[in-house]
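re: ur msg from earlier - yeah i can do the 1-deoxynojirimycin complex, just paste it... oh wait u already did. ok heres what im feeding in:
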Amino acid sequence: MKFGYFDDENQEYVITRPDTPLPWINYLGCQAYFGIISNTAGGYSFYRDARLRRVTRYRYNNVPHDFGGRYIYLRDNESGEFWSPSWQPTRHDLENYTCRHGMGYTVIGSRYQGITAHTNYFVPLDENLEIWQLTVTNQRSERATLSIFSSLEFCLWDAQDDATNFQRNFSIGQVEIEDGVIYHKAEYRERRDHFAYFACSDKVEAFDTQRDALVGPYRSWEKPLAIECGRLTDSVAHGWAPIGAHQVDVKLAPGESRQIIFVLGYHENPRDQKFDPPDSQIINKRTLKPVIAKYRDAAKVDAAFQNLRQYWKDVLGILQVDTPDVHTNRMVNIWNAYQCMATFNMSRSASFYESGIGRGLGFRDSNQDLLGFVHMVPARARERILDLAATQLPTGGAYHQYQPLTKRGNNDVGSNFNDDPHWLIVGVAAYLKETGDVSILDEPVPYDNQPGSEQPLFEHLQRSFQYTLDRLGPHGLPLIGRADWNDCLNLNCFSDTPGQSFQTTTNKEGKVAESVFIAGLFVLAGRELADIAERRGLAEEAESYRAKAAKMESTIHEHGWDREWFLRAYDDFGRKVGSRECNEGKIFIETQGFCVLAGVGLEDGRAAKSLESVSKHLATEHGIILQQPAYSRYYLELGEISSYPPGYKENAGIFCHNNPWVMIAETRLGNGDRAHDYYSRINPSARESISELHRCEPYVYAQMIAGRDAPTHGEAKNSWLTGTAAWNYYAVTQWILGIRTSYEGLQISPVIPKNWAGFKATRLFRGATYHITIERAGEGNHIALEVDGVPIQGDIVPPPEKGRKEVVVKGTLR
Ligand code: BGC
Ligand code: NOJ
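and the outut:
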């Protein structure tokens, strides 16, 4: 069953009934001001940091989940009836309800009693504000007399404190109201230099800023008293819960339309110019007023919306493909790319599953995400890399997370996730291959943000690599530390105390437990680093990195192979994890995918064996399971992985993030059919028809799909902010379609299904647009390329001579 449909031409997903199995959301904003918006207009907004600069309130663990949002009410002043065109909060039976989630905007609307109302919610480029552009049309045959109400709840900035510290917070709320604009200024009197505002393009008949005055005692947003009465109360919040609500009265002739624009924003003043007059307590609004004036003008709002659409057209236009598979096309061309940008903006901080008060930006996560977004925002990717590297510790280790506002490492979670440093190498390599900008390697970057500790970025990469060499275990494999990619394989944790964090509790010295996964990652990172060193003319270093990677490869062969698949780890007792000798957790996906992807075992048949084992033991119709058999009880020596009931999350869930490793691995063995088959099993668009089971949005990946040990096998959870976005994008574009960035040029090396007649693509790469056509002339993966009609050797298209902007590439597969 479906709850909507894809409108690929407009790059939208259109939801046609409001009661989706879960809130189906979108993101507003792509620079500094952001919002989450659900299909019923639920969600919240923030400036840069979802925890510390929360603009509107979100109530955690709410029912429904997305309750609290950007709500508009319409009231028919003749009948006294009122409803919300976005369904929530009043939940009337609406006609023609639609929610169009597009690139950076969401339009929600419906018809009720002959009145249609649609609101376009978006954040204009280069502004710290959001627009709610409402169009109301009277489709009745007689005149309509309506009141229109806007409403939102302000957050008292720190979202964590806002949700918990009531003894203080109920006394600090303050507002100003001027010309119908509501200003929220809690704490502005003291140490904050920022405030929020909520404006309206029309004459404001009345307003409310105190929640209780609007809603009334023992009522909720479903039936606010003042709206029922048809008149807001002009309340001025002192303490309690500051809100923003406007009332606009309109009379519409039959067929008449009206547009009303609401503007919600965040503004900062220089500390010494906070007040106007300076010795008063009144907000200085001088620099803000022109901004508000601008967006009260519908023509300017329309222009801002067109700019936003153009921005996304340009960003997505960098790579467009035309394959025989519609699901591949729409994910690559629209939604997967868009989701990669969401992970760039949010890392793992703010969704309906990441609370925005928790995880900040992950070091590993943000580096991996680069694989998916580097081509779309190379300049910002550069900045991100330098920010991440600046949190690196002098040992080469990394803070597991950092806070986006301060850009400092997060001390609470700390370090010693021993895979972390290598992701910096992987991320930088992706950036270099995309841009060719080797100057980044010379950028001076501090360690742990300490002034004076600056060293070239290249040295950071060297220290990342060295970090593992300094931490080898009894078998010569990398020590795992707190965890590797699998945050839940906590082999040094041994926690038996409820509530302790699996990630930060360490009860063992950490000198025994080893990770075969980090070994695979080390091989990959070593080869990447060698390539980078070569480009710096450091032939000897390159040689030594290659030798170390090769040595690790033989260590994997010797101690990391389990007859038919790669082992996963050794625990603190030196016992195998992910071996046929184990009772549970005999085989894990991570090492099969990642070792083969890194090239381990390609020559001696182990790679093929390993992938056969994946297909035999882990692959299901809904994707590839993390491990089997699932852990049926808690194992002190394994940690969080065994804390989950079987089939969920890291305990034998389909953890979609690692499925593309197997897809890439399959392409390395030339199995395009299998690679694309695995791709399709978790492709959200291909799963749209089972939305009732899948439950999450059909247009973005979720982190996890319940595995076959779970009662709800096939049900997805935790959509949007997951490494799944970048890795799937990378796997399908660079390995299956094979349009791969390299130092020498654009490599074209598809490993596509046998029954594909070919495909077309355009790719903007280092300033030139490549028009690529691939045709199948046989069943294999051997490619012959013609560039501008001239055959070339090999599969790498060299950069065109300076000034040439278009390159035509024709590839024939045999
Ligand atoms: C989750 C992991 C996550 C970790 C760190 C665990 O509870 O299962 O997926 O990476 O927490 O936040
Ligand atoms: C989610 C985390 O964000 C990611 O870093 C980790 O690799 C996976 N969970 C697996 O545990």
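cool cool. Residues 359, 487-488, 503, 640, 649-650 surround beta-D-glucopyranose (ligand 1) (CB under 6 Å). ping me if u need the other ligands too
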